[in-house]
Every structure is written in structure tokens, then in C-alpha cells.
Amino acid sequence: MNDGSRLGRGPELPPARAAAASSGRTGRRIAVVGGGLGGLSCAIHLAARGCRVTLLEKEPELGGKLQRVEEGRYRFDNGPSTLTMQPVFDAVFAAAGRKREDYVRFRPLDPIARSRFADGSVVDLTADAERMEAQIAVYSPEDARSYRAYMRESARLHALAEREFLSGLILGWKDRLRPSLLAGFARIRPLASMDRVLRSYFRHPNTLAMFGRYATYVGSAPRQTPAVFNMMAHIEAGDGGGSGVFAADGGSYAIVEAYARLARELGVDIRTRAEVRRIAVLHGRAAGVETDGGFVRADAVVLNADPLEALRRLVPELHRPSTPDRRLDRLEPSVAGFVLLLGLRGELGGLLHHNVFFPNDYEAEFDDLFGRRELPADPAIYVCRSGGGAAAGAVGGSGRTSLFALVNAPAQRDGLDYEALKDAYAERILGLLEARGLSGIAERTGPQAGGLRRVLTPDDLARRTGAWRGAIYGMSSNRPSQAFFRFPSRDRDIRGLWYAGGSAHPGGGTPIVTIGGRLVAERLLEELGD
């Protein structure tokens, strides 16, 4: 799927869909700014309903934070790599009368991920509850006895979140006061933290770290993140119903390529290297966008870029009294990411597709990130073996291994100079990986051994994607107001301006931003009367 000429070819649309797409049934022109998964999902759903959609991406490639990096004989998925909630992706293609497997192939992962702890314990996450109990019992028989009860609570929280928070937008007080939402909100224990719920089931620091790490999936800290995010345990290792972690053949970026192919087949006008300079506001309504290549008129604009940063550049404050810069500045950013792309000859033993190397004191990492706002002295390190063990991790099956290593980092702030720190901190990460079991990784990724090292900091993410302060998820979920009420999907001041992506409802992560794109498309069309 690397050949761009193939992106426009595929099965013919069913007659009803073809008629709607070709005739422009709604007659509406929609501009989508940003080609991440949320923007692509929104564009696909709008085009499938007959809208004339123009998608504008300032970078040479689509994908937003999810990119493919090829250098020499190495290939990396740079960005989101843990894929869950497969039915969400299937539904994008079903909305256009297509089958997802005709565009991108998925394969389940089992074991799902390998956790290595400072005491030498190893747990391979799996949906097999009996196996999980046996692994946990090696270091804590007490925690093993509580595992199934915790997973039942995780499933309960997921069911509530799916029904009340992932099924519709929360645009105003009418949505917030919906009786079912209020009832569901009370049942998710909104004032309890993830950590508090975890400690009601588990005692051992290994188990607390393994499940507490899910707070970082929303860029936050276990002691501050609301309890509902314990649902991630069920999403990753639950018992069916769309639960489970999978990999995409060709790497995670294959999903971007599949979305782009479908969008083009539906008539979406995708323009890369097309930076938007301003959102035009006429009589209080979004009327289109100005780009280097000219003006694009639109009946509505969907901003699939971080609004916490993009609004400052694209919309003068006089048009957005509800979101002045000073109000945006008061929000707390999520964690950022410090990334190493590592290439080496041959194999490196002991790795699954997903791996986490935990420190002795995991809680201290969050004191560094959100208290002192500095790079963690002894961080957890996530390592993804690109390609899931298949040849996709190296170009042309060249007998090389490509590793994506991620450490949580604080968002940009005054006095934090990532450029000055990055080389020394990269060496520290390599040293920690050596000490935690990846013997020889420093030497084998060096240039003399034919290896590869590339360092990417929050500054790089901010430059490439416009991420606010280099944060991966926009605002954190450490405060209930930021966790449950994200940036509004519809602008409060400018009619016809909508938001899709990780900072907007329902939040970040590849399946969640895909859901968000669909919800925006559906509500936008409803309000336009289509």
C-alpha cells in the first residue's frame, strides 16, 4: 500500500452510495483541516452522505501524529502503536458499504504485551484470565485472587463509557443534563481516581504499575486520572465484544493509507502540503479557509488539529470570546513524549510487539512529570517492535529490527530546553534498557555496528503537528473537568466551526478519535438539516 497511485483504486461503490457521492446529495461543502485519523474519519462519513469534502493537510503525508518513518533499511511506526477496539475501524468502511479487510488486514496479538518489573518479574498480558492469575501469583498470590473481580469492574466501566460518553457529543447543557448521562456519570465514580480503585483490589507495586500505566493512555497520572479509565484493562484484555489488541499488516500507518484510499474513492479532495493560514469568519459563521494555494469556500469547517494551539494561529480572539488565549493557557497539558527510533542488525531476544520496562518506583515518574515538570529520572520505557515480529519492521526483509522506544516527558515550558538535553537523556534511556534486560542494545544501535539512532522530542512533535506545548493528548485528564468535558466539538462562538481529534470529545487514541470524527460528521449534518 506504499504506492500512492493505488490509493484511489478499489471496489466500486454500491449503487446507492455511488449516486449519493457523485451527485453531492446534500450539496454541502465541508473543509476538514488536518489529515489525522479523526479528520479522515470525519471526511469519510461526510462524503458517504454526499457532501463535497476538501481535506487540507500542511505536511507532505497524512496521518497527523501517526507517521511511517523509513531510513535506510529500517522502518518505524512513529506515534500511536497500540491498536484496540477493532469494530470501530470496521465501522468506518461499513459506513461506505465497504469491508475493512479489503483495505487493511488486522491480526490479533496474544500475548498482548510484556511487562518487565524491577524485581525481575515478567507478566505477559493476555485475555486468558487463568494465565494472568498464574503470572501475578508468582509475586503476589493476594493480587492474583483479586484479578477477576477487577476485570469485572473494568468491564462495567467500559460498558458505561461506551453507552454514555462514546455514543454522542456533549455540546451544551441539554446534552450534559441528559438523564441517562447523569445516571451513568454517578455510576462511574467521577471523584475517585484510577489509583484509588486499583488499590481497592491490589497491593503489590507491580500490579499497581501494570494497570496504573493506563492513565498514560490519556496523558495523565494514576493518582489524578478519574477511575473510569480503568476500563482500559477490559478493552485490552477483556473477554470478547471487540476487546483485545491487534496489529495491522504493514504497520499502524497502513490504517492511514486505508482511510485515505477510501476517502479518495468517495470523492474527498485530499490536498497535502496545503497549510491553512486562517479560518474565514463572516457574520459569526465559518465561511471557509485561506491557504497558500487560495481560498476554499465551505458551509462548515472541521478543525482536526489541536485547537489549544491552532485557534491562536487561525482565528483572531475577537471572534472567539469564549476561548481567549488566557483561558487556553490555564488548561493543564497532557504528557509529551521523548522518542528513540532504534535500528539494529538481526534480532533482539525477549521482545514481543509491545513491551514495557518498569522502574523500581513508578509513582516517582508522575511527580517528575506533573510536579517538577521535568524529565523523569527513572522512567518506565515502552518499546514497540515495529511490524509485530514480521518483516514489516525492516524494509525489504533485510534482517534488521526496528524499535520505537517512548518515555513520557513533560510538556514544553519555559526553561526546559529539549535540544540541549536530548543527547544525554537518550544515552540514559539506552543505559536503562541495558540494565533492564536488553543487553547490547546501545552497542548494536550504534553506527559502527550498522545500527540507527534517531531522537524525537516534544519540540519535534509540536513543529510537525501543531501539538499544543508538544503534548501528545492536548489537555491532560488529571482534572474531572478536562477528562469528562473535553474541548467542545462545536465552537461556542463561531457557527459552523467544529473540532475533531484528541483534545476534543471524546478524547485521544486511534479508535477514540475515529469515533469522534464520525460523531462530528453526524451532528454537523443534523444541524445543517441533511
Give a structural overview.
The protein is α/β, with parallel strands linked by helices and 530 residues long. It is 35% helix and 19% strand. It is built from 19 helices and 20 strands. The strands form 5 sheets. The chain has a 7-stranded mixed sheet. β1 (29-33), α2 and β2 form a beta-alpha-beta unit. α2 runs parallel beside α11, α5 packs antiparallel against α7 and α5 (141-164) packs across α10. The longest helix is centred in the first third of the chain and has 24 residues, at 141-164. The chain is globular. The protein starts with 14 loop residues before the first helix and ends with a helix. Mean pLDDT is 88; it is low at 1-24 and 388-393.
Question: Tell me about the biggest sheet?
Answer: 7 strands, mixed
Instruction: List the uncertain runs.
Output: 1-24, 388-393
Strands across the major sheet, in which order?
A: 8-7-16-17-18-15-19
Q: Count the strands?
A: 20
| Average pLDDT reading | 88
Q: What distance lies between the first and last C-alpha atoms, to the nearest angstrom?
A: 34 Å
- Tell me, briefly, the overall form: globular
Which radius of gyration do the C-alpha atoms yield? Answer: 22 Å
Report the β-strand fraction as a percent range. 15-25%
What structural class results from the helix and strand content?
Answer: alpha/beta
**Share of helix, binned:** 25-40%
Give the count of helical stretches: 19
Oligomer: single chain
